[in-house]
Design brief:
The chain is an alpha/beta fold. It is built from 4 helices and 7 strands; from the N terminus they run E-H-E-H-E-E-E-E-H-E-H. The strands form 2 sheets. The protein has a 5-stranded parallel sheet with strand order 1-7-6-2-3, with helices on both faces. Strands 4-5 form a two-stranded antiparallel sheet. Strand 6, helix 3 (about 80-90) and strand 7 (about 100) form a beta-alpha-beta unit. It is globular.
Length: about 120
């Protein structure tokens, strides 16, 4: 996956690239990046790079059908591993242009970018 920052995500979002909020539905409903789509990553595995994806649930069918098109994943950064794990799951499923917005919603908000 490619690490991206808030400014890059804004440009991609404006260009129509899907931005996926991997946080729980309640967090998405409360506040998210304007234009983001909710596809929660249901996490039971360890917060580690070698996590066991079989313990988790992520609905890949809600992602774009074109696996060659870019897609961005984000969550709450810091202690939140959902977007990292979703990026790994998407790549394992054959997505080739995965963007990981590591700073996530906190970075987006701190820059005063549009939310909904």
């Amino acid at each position: 996956a490619k690490l991206v920052g808030a400014e890059e995500v804004k440009k991609m979002l404006d260009a129509g690239v899907p931005v996926i909020d991997t946080r729980v539905a309640a967090e998405y409903a409360e506040k998210t990046i304007k234009g983001a789509k909710s596809v929660p990553y249901k996490e039971k595995s360890a917060k580690a790079a070698d996590f066991d994806a079989a313990q988790d649930h992520f609905d890949l069918s809600k992602l774009p059908t074109d696996k060659g098109a870019p897609v961005v994943f984000f969550c709450n950064a810091g202690e939140c591993w959902k977007s990292y794990k979703a990026s790994v799951a998407a790549m394992k499923a054959g997505y080739s242009k995965v963007q990981w917005f590591r700073g996530g919603f906190p970075e987006w908000s701190s820059k005063g970018l549009p939310t909904q």
